[in-house]
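quick one
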Amino acid sequence: MASLSLTLTKPLRNVGLYVLLMVKAFASLGEFRLYRKNLFKQMVRVGIDSIPIVALAAAFSGAVTTVQTAYQLVSPFIPKRIIGSIVAPSLILELGAVVTGFILAGRIGARFAAELGTMRVTEQIDALEAMGLNSIGYLIVPRVLAGVVMFPVLYVVACFVGITGGIGVAHFGGYLEAGEFVAGAREFFQPFDPVFGLIKSVVFGFAITSISCYKGYYTGGGAEGVGRATTDAAVLSCVYILVADLLLAIVLL
Amino acid sequence: MIQIEHLYKSFDGKPVLRDVSLEIRDGETLAIIGRSGSGKSVLMKHVIGLLTPTSGRVQVDGTDINEIPYRRLREVRRQFGVLFQGGALFDSMNAFENIAFPLRTFTDMEEAAIRDEVYECLRLVELPDVGPKRTAELSGGMQKRVALARAIALRPRYIIYDEPTSGLDPETSNAIDDLIRALTDEMNVTSIVVTHDMHSVLSIADRAALLHRGHLHWVGTIDELHASDDEVLCAFVKANEYQIGVPQRV
Amino acid sequence: MKYGNELKVGIAVVLSIIVFIVGVRYFQDLPIFSGTLELYTTFENADGLIVGNPVQINGVRVGRVNEVRLRPETRNVLVRFQVDRDLQIPEGSTTRVSGLSALSSVSVVINLADARRSAVSAGDTLTSDQTDVLGNLVDQAPRLVHRADSLFGSATTTLNTAEQLLARPESDLRQTLVAIGTTARTVDQLLRTEQQRLASTLESVDTLATSLADFSTTNQDSLSLAVQRLNRSLTQLERNLTALEQTTTTLDAILQKVNQGEGTLGLLVNDPGLYHRLDSTTTQLNRLLVDFQQNPKRYLKDLKLVEVF
Ligand SMILES: Nc1ncnc2c1ncn2[C@@H]1O[C@H](COP(=O)(O)OP(=O)(O)OP(=O)(O)O)[C@@H](O)[C@H]1O
Ligand SMILES: [Mg+2]
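structure w/ magnesium ion:
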């Protein structure tokens, strides 16, 4: 009976724990001195160091979307520039943020969970606390902030490289001219699209980093626990990226 | 002064500490002894509020640390130096940075002064040249000593040592014991030493407290310990004697 | 080096902000560094104009549509659009919607007024000079029908003249002209069948145009198909009418000659390849007729031969 009610309330307790952790993190936002150095270190790790892999993935997404759209649009009634009208918004609205999100979920989510998890099981977090340091402010705030600030940067990189990749493959693959692509992209361009993408990337950045920090911060059970936290963080980050993606689309579009 | 009153602690319904009441007076060194798993580390974590009691109170200088806001609790914690059982060195930093960390975080000291201080601490734990080494490159005993250096870097009023000499060779153990005694004498530090090394207890402690299955089984001075005929205590001391020979008060 | 991380992050953030702003302006088709001028215009029918559609002058893109708002109180559509600031648009310039939203992008086209007039400033409203694209297409049909009608009228007149001519008993070339009568009837018949075909063509054009007008602009494929068919029909009709026009002109010429008392026409009109060979034959005929007037006997002998044949 007790264990049943425990299993039933466990998800709720986890949500509560997560929310509480984030509230504490927000409450520590003011202690900039505490996490300033860490913040820039994490920003470099989350943002700058992720640029190559994000750019690579985005370039391929843009190229593949272009080729597949070209493949599907064989009707002579549809002008070729429509490929640009489809590829550019796909990248700006969806792929730019989601592809970057998945990469960061694997790259950063797992890493944060493993780092914090190890710190937890080796009592490093206790050691920070015992010194009178705000461990949430010191460890979690800079990581989440780094995600929130640097994810949009990566989003811009992804869109830029993705569209460039699309144009490149369109031109060199002989699908359509760069000018046509751009004309098509411009035709259906909505200034809100990139703004929506930015909003998305901020939300994704927050989701990935906060979930993985939560998983890592509350790791228990030694090395095995760290391993579990790591996979959980990566998987949950991906799931919540998709959930947030849908919710944002419903709310904002 | 630290007062622990009727402290109960259970994890997921499993009791670990049961009605522990203990007072640690200013300037004294209290040894907490007991068998492995008896709850020594758990008790010590309650003293700095890393764990919250299921019931009961922990007071530091008259304030209940579980009643005050987090900001205040952190101020209380800053008076403590804590050596964790596993060392708990930050593995993202090297030995030097670990010891410099509290100095950089909590003082406005110049970098040169911090350097001097760190090397002084490293000298005290007899590791003058491990500064540039990363945590993973240090042996277990070295890690523990670097952690001890970190714990004392800020010259805290209270120092909690969780098994400072376990895993160390007898010679280094003695050096650490000397260090603990010196800190206590020179700076009027109040110390809590969690240990099951009777040799250490007899050489550094003023009083000892025996935890047995979550209960505080016995508390008394070292003289009382010698005179006691408590069964559990005698068994614990005997086991140690068998291990390391007859301990002598230095 | 102490602020290495801060520097890296700062550069990345600033660069991405620049790329973002420049990128958005690029895809909005805005001049990246100079400003824009915002203007208004109203249309009775926006023809599927949406935000982001281009604004063009002489087919060159100069700006974009920022807002399309229906104003129920005035029963028209207010369109806010922007153009490059450097552009000097003279007062009195007009706008219209161009393009078919179902097929391609609709755009606002500005017809520039006299360049000597002073330029408009931000917030001004340009008057629209609207011509309905679809309407245009549909309008063509009645015009063609009208043209066809007048054509048939003239054909009938020509044939009537021929008939009158044939009715004259005193004619020298009576025999020949009997043959012409037959031919004329054939032509008449031909015209009648042709008229029917034209009528059905025009009818189908009309139906298409109506259905096109009724069509919602969403079903792009079938609509584009419909418009293509309409276009084809119109082209075919045009071709028909041109051919008919030619025929009638030729017939006119023949009858004129007949009116002047020239009789070898029977030869020509019996030829089934009349329609195609008439031009060259007419030239020949002219020469022949001159000769015929000079030595009629020689030709009458020949004519008999032909009749036997
Ligand atoms: N976070 C925790 N969650 C659940 N149980 C715990 C937790 N921490 C300690 N325990 C349990 O409390 C008991 C006491 O643990 P503690 O670490 O205090 O032992 P100890 O006296 O320090 O032993 P040792 O001398 O081996 O360090 C153990 O049975 C342990 O399983
Ligand atoms: Mg312990």
